[in-house]
Amino acid sequence: xxxxxxxxxxxxxxxxGGHGLFxxxxxxxxLSTDVTAVVTxxxxxxxxxxxxxxxxxxxxxxxxxxxxxxxxxxxDVRTWTETLQxxxxxxxxxxxxxxxxxxxAGLTEVLGDTVxxxxxxxxxxxxxxxxxxxxxxxxxxEADVGGLESDPRVSRCIRGQVAVATTPxxxxxxxxxxxxxxxxxxxxxxxxxxxxxxxGPGSWFSSVIPHVLVPEQLQALIQSRARKxxxxxxxxxxxxxxxxxxxxxxxxxxxxxxxxxxDDVIVDSSSVPDGSEREHLCxxxxxLGAAVTYADVAExxxxxxxxxKLAAALDSLRAVGAGERSAFHSTPGRESxxxx
Length: 340
Hints:
InterPro entries: CofD, CofD-like_dom_sf, Gluconeogen_factor. It is found in: Cytoplasm. GO terms for molecular function: LPPG:FO 2-phospho-L-lactate transferase activity. It is a single chain. The protein is an alpha/beta fold. The chain folds into three domains: 8-36 and 180-340, Rossmann fold, CATH 3.40.50.10680; 42-133, no CATH class; 140-175, no CATH class. The protein has helices at residues 18-28, 46-55, 61-70, 75-85, 99-111, 114-124, 161-166, 185-192, 204-208, 215-223, 246-256, 276-287, 307-316, and strands at 12-16, 35-39, 130-133, 140-146, 155-159, 170-177, 196-199, 227-231, 264-268, 291-295. Strands 3-2-1-7-8-9-10 form a seven-stranded parallel sheet, with helices on both faces. The longest helix is centred in the N-terminal third of the chain and has 13 residues, at 99-111.
């Protein structure tokens, strides 16, 4: 008796940070059991900022969120996941700290490095993929911001992820400090072996753009044979992207990484009305080498992506077009039949 062949899902790498990456990972895990999260490491606020300052560790908050997104959905694991996400109350030294942040900081000290700590926590949570930092060292974000001086043509330099995310001015450009940070070697390997690479959504200047500012990681993205999809935010964020159109988000990415191309831009259909806005967005996408896919991907009444709807939109990419856009670029020597 011949059984039906089991077709593996795509090898997926998702880049981002915070709640945006959490949403992407919840969608990606519906498509594949081989999902790697590559997470920004520039947070300097809240529990993460305190642990970074006091212990010199990579800020653990976004890494913890990614672990929770990929954790197995089993009763005993759910207890662990809920505990990792639990935040202490009160007014003492632990007030405001997430349990998972403390565990990751402790595991990093015990095991000697962040990647080993994340792999150990992934084992406890029965994660089939991996969670990795964008860089093995904590980074800082610096931005040129207009509108903070009496002369609107003058920019002020501000530093720190929280400062950039909450500025009342207009962010024009961001940089990482140090300016040439090392990439995480395992993250580069994940990008190289991927069938599908996802970037966004999330805080554009502090969670998405930083991924193209690590030189080795940008080169890995440029050289990758994977299909690359950019997932746009459902709405502009107060502070760093206030007033931004969907088109403007693409221009900003191009300005920071002019050599980067992507294959697809996924946009919530209700966030960009028919007419000139869609025409402008399509032109901006073509400059990135991309086609725009409009789909209902939002939780009703919110600015949050719905995991099931986003997964369906990602799954539909393999059926788009009749030419080379209809398939992910497969890596020689590995079976990924359903995505070819």
